[in-house]
Design goal:
The protein is an all-alpha fold and 138 residues long. The protein contains five helices and no strands. The longest helix is centred in the C-terminal third of the chain and has 35 residues. The protein starts with 12 loop residues before the first helix and ends with a helix.
Length: 138
């Protein structure tokens, strides 16, 4: 009995040209390659069937699942540790304090800038200047 992929089932271009004398070399190559692809697919299907019969596929899937599950749990644990240490470290606390100080300073400067802008606008507005002159008695 011959299995797909044995030398006895493969035909050479010479044998194919004898069998199909009217076909070109390119057509014969396509035919031969299609035949080889079909044999390769049969071999793959046959191997998959054997794995399913023996239970190798089921075991390998379970092993992969267990490995992935264990690695995921380890990664989650390490992430939790890094977050806990990182957020409570002295460096992080100092950085948070510096951010808060800079934010307060920036708010103060924005308010001062706004006040100065309003003063400049009042000094350059002719209507406001006229009103102030009338109030002062000029």
């Amino acid at each position: 009995m011959t299995k797909p992929g044995d030398l006895q089932t493969k035909k050479t271009i010479h044998e194919l040209s004898k069998e199909f004398p009217n076909k070109t070399y390119t057509q014969l190559e396509k035919y031969r390659n299609a035949d080889r692809n079909e044999e390769a697919q049969q071999i793959i299907t046959q191997q998959e069937n054997e794995e399913l019969k023996e239970g190798q596929f089921k075991e390998s899937w379970k092993d992969k699942y267990d490995l992935e599950h264990r690695l995921r749990r380890e990664a989650e644990g390490e992430t939790t540790i890094v977050k806990a240490i990182g957020m409570n470290s002295p460096e992080m606390k100092a950085a948070k304090q510096k951010i808060e100080d800079l934010q307060n300073s920036m708010d103060r400067l924005r308010k001062e800038n706004s006040d100065l802008y309003n003063r400049i606008a009042d000094l350059t507005d002719p209507v406001v200047q006229l009103q102030k002159a009338r109030e002062s008695g000029l």
